[in-house]
Write a structure and sequence with these properties.
229 residues; alpha+beta; Adenine-n6-DNA-methyltransferase TaqI, Chain A, domain 2; three-stranded mixed β-sheet; 6 helices; 9 strands; 36% helix; globular
């Protein structure tokens, strides 16, 4: 039941994104909220924020449970991180940060995603609301909340095809300039907020059913292990 609900909501979200955002080469979406009629403005992401790459995370420094989260690509799979990075496998102390001269990304909110390797092709993105560090296989785009609404930006990035930026080579990859050069269309901040709130509700429902589905799968696994010889 929850699996079907996830699939249905995902399809609904996909349809809404197509209706609430302009089609290619168009400046107005097919469906709009009342009292909004102005054309959406084309902007480069670099005009709306800044992309930042991660750096090496020595294994000897990993394993911490307190401090600033040090996100890796695999952390997107953690429970609760379906749409927003709320937890991490590794945390580092301020002493570690000072000793290693690491620079946490404090310009939040930001969108976190993979920048190299097979994970790029999955095209996954996550919102980050609190300061964090990120490893060298990832990137983050910090954006200006005076120009972009947080929840709208989550949906905006869900429509961006990052794998299309990947350079040909042994491993798919792209750089900060590639991301900042992406052109997007955005409406007024007021319209962004209305779209963002609505789509956030859909995301919350999807995450709810995903968590319930995972719990049921774990329960089934436990029962299979204990009800059979």
């Amino acid at each position: 039941l929850h699996e079907r609900k996830c699939e249905e909501l995902t399809l609904i979200k996909k349809a809404l994104l197509q209706k609430l955002f302009p089609k290619k080469e168009e400046v107005r979406p097919e469906v709009r909220y009342k009292n909004f009629s102005d054309a959406w403005e084309q902007r480069k992401l670099g005009d709306l924020g800044k992309a930042k790459s991660g750096f090496g995370f020595p294994e000897s420094e990993q394993g911490g449970k307190e401090g600033v989260p040090f996100f890796k690509v695999s952390d997107m799979n953690l429970k609760g991180n379906e749409f927003e990075m709320t937890t991490a496998t590794n945390y580092v102390t301020h002493e570690q940060i000072s000793l290693k001269k690491w620079k946490p990304i404090e310009e939040v909110p930001a969108i976190f995603f993979a920048k190299v390797g097979a994970a790029v092709l999955l095209n996954r993105k996550r919102l980050c609301r609190l300061p964090f560090l990120l490893d060298n296989n990832t990137m983050a785009f910090s954006f200006d909340v005076q120009k972009l609404d947080i929840d709208f930006t989550v949906s905006l990035f869900s429509k961006i095809n990052l794998p299309a930026l990947a350079q040909v080579g042994a491993l798919p990859s792209y750089n900060t300039k590639d991301v900042e050069s992406i052109k997007v269309y955005i409406p007024s901040l007021e319209e962004q907020k209305k779209i963002g709130v609505y789509l956030k509700k859909i995301n919350n429902l999807i995450a709810l059913h995903q968590r319930k589905l995972e719990k049921l799968k774990q329960l089934k696994k436990f029962l299979l292990q204990n009800m059979f010889i």
